[in-house]
Amino acid sequence: PVFAGMNGSAIDNFSCVIYNISLMNCTWQAGKDAPADTQYFLYWQNSRYEDAMECELYFKDENGRNMGCGFQNVRIETEKAYFLVNGSSKDSLIQFYDAYIQLYKIETLTPPLNVTVNCTRDPAGCIITWQAPLTSHMGNIKCFQYEISIQNK
Fold first, then answer.
1. Which structural domains are found in the chain, ordered by start?
2. What is the mean pLDDT of each run of 10 residues along the chain (153 residues)?
3. How far is CA 17 from its chain centroid?
4. DSSP letter, residue 94
5. Does residue 72 contact residue 23 with C-beta atoms inside 8 Å?
6. Is residue 55 within 8 Å of residue 25, measured between CB atoms?
7. In Å, what is the CA distance from 151 to each residue of 75, 127, 148?
8. Domain Type I cytokine receptor cytokine-binding, which positions (predicted)?
């Protein structure tokens, strides 16, 4: 497809991460050929049934250029979320960048809850139990995989 705007002016290295259950940060780098006065704006749509929203809190570089965004109260829907970063400059048209992302794939999970260890002297050893970590989406808890590291002292 042909995009309006100067080649090399769209953002690079766009990525997002969800953490602490409902917070999301997205970051990007300015296009390598973008004019110095280029300012970028992020919009996203969590599902096709919701309106697109602009970034709530931009992260700026030392020149005041938007280089990232923070969101609160993010819910992970079953559909892919749509992200669009466009730009403006006095000097030229800026190409836009867009992407569809499955939010559950970018979530950093909190630790498991209520970890308990009960050890006995008999050969049965120890029983370790825990509950699934909190997440903003109701996934199937059978999908979680855990790794236990036991260090003898």
1. 12-105 (2.60.40.10)
2. 77 96 95 93 91 94 94 90 95 93 91 90 84 77 81 72
3. 2
4. B
5. yes
6. no
7. 37, 15, 10
8. 13-106
